[in-house]
Amino acid sequence: MSDPGLRRLALGTLLAAFRGEIAPDWAVALLAEGLAGHTLFGTNVADPAQLARLTARLREGRPDAVLAVDEEGGDVTRLAHRTGSPFPGNAALGAVDDEELTRQVYAAIGSDLVAVGVNLDLAPTVDVNTADDNPVIGTRSFGADPLLVARHAVAAVEGLQSAGVAACAKHFPGHGATVADSHLSLPTVDVGLDVLRARDLPPFAAVASSAQAVMSAHIRVPVLTGDDPATFSRAALRTLLRREYGFRGVIVTDALEMAGAAASAGGIPRAAVRALTAGADLLCIGARVDAALVEAVMAEIVAEVPASRLAEASARTAEMASWTSKHRTSPGYDGELGLIAARRAVRVEGSPAAPGAPLVVQLVSGHSIAAGHVPWGLAPHLDGVEQLEVVTDTTSAAELIARAGGRPIVVVGRHAHRQAGSRALIEQLAAVHAVTVVEMGWPSSWRPAGARAFVITHGAGLVNGRAAAEALGLR
Question: Are 462 and 80 in contact (CB under 8 A)?
Fold first, then answer.
């Protein structure tokens, strides 16, 4: 039988998870035995009242439990996963470029999290999105300018932490230049340290003295991490983040179940050992977790990681949890704040069709694993306006024009430029019909010839859709 003291220390480095809106007994029992906490996902959330009951139940196991959530606003939301976020995401805030607005939006997010008992927000995303076709960051980023992202990263951290919610800046050392998703593979950023320091690292340097936590990325940067992801790299976590940037808070891993970590290490338990050895403190196991997996990870850690390293890591996490309990506030905010911010982020090029009742055509698109299935588009904001959801490969321009009759067409898409079928359909429509395009993903330089207008929302949250509908005169 393992040493009870070592078992407790090992559990103190883990963030588990469970499915459902009621905490299973094992999830509470492990907290009482020393588990650091749980990450909550959309499957755990029905509404704020239910979530508050759930977190209260978890704290019966451990009052200082770390209860974490990915609440970024915009495309990535857990609290509002059934409706879409009431706050715009980072791309919209970066487009507005008002640091005080960013601080206010994140303070409001923090206020909502305090109200439901969450004390660690796995946000903000501070990656500099320099790859237009980045499949995992995109609108989660404040922008492509490192200095702009750094300014807004500082404001976002200040906003969240003003409510007593620990902020976790992610994904160190920068996921913005990747064109692969670390949920599915191990992306590589093959650039020199000079490029990394100028392009990807400034936001992390900017928040190193203030953020309670920083999340490591499962990305390979050969010049820094060799063949390993940053999550397993002493050079990245200890030498660069801790020693050079002076970061004293908690290093949190991205989910170890992701292919960028688990496949690189030979399974989640081995990934946990490698992350702790490299210098990570709090290990997010992932979303598909049960008691048996937690026990397997814990056993591997106890067998492989020195007690001194476990004591150091669990102490940092306990200190962060203590900080949140001492600084927790519920300042409240103007309920229109998110909509006001989303309106300011809308950009309209050209002249939209005259007010009336167009045919609104929403292009069916996939979803990122990070965001999950969250409603998006203009539908919730359209009264008496016909809307169709179409798959571009099975829909022709002639069909849509016939359906529209004499009405103009509004085409709503996310990253429409990335799909040849979407581009072709929009271009065929615009060549012969009055068409306005609403882009709710990361904007590109592509513009369809002949379109009357091109509307950019910089995100697909609920309020982004409302702001677009208003800009088109549909509300």
Answer: yes
What does residue 244 show for φ and ψ, rounded to 5 degrees?
A: -75, -45
Provide CATH 3.20.20.300 ranges for the chain.
4-327
- Give the closest residue to 134 by CA, choosing from 75, 85, 84: 75
Q: Is 186 helix (H, G, I), strand (E, B) or coil?
A: coil
pLDDT digits (tens, 9 = 90+) for 128-155: 999 888 888 999 999 999 999 999 999 9
| Residue 348 three-state SS | strand
Q: Supply the DSSP symbol for 125.
A: B
Token digits of residue 298: 């814990």
Going by C-alpha positions, the residue among 164, 170, 165, 179 that lies closest to residue 76 is 170
Cα 20 to its chain centre, rounded Å, is 21
Q: How far is residue 461's CA from residue 439's CA, in Å, rounded to a whole number?
A: 12
DSSP strand pairing (250-253 vs 283-284): unpaired
Backbone angles phi, psi at 334, to 5 degrees: -65, 125
pTM equals 0.95
- Confirm or reject CATH 3.30.70 for domain 346-471, answering yes or no: no
pLDDT at 53: 98
CATH architecture of the domain with range 4-327? Alpha-Beta Barrel (3.20)
Active site residues: 183, 254
Cα separation values, 379 from 86, 189, 212, 340, Å: 15, 38, 38, 19
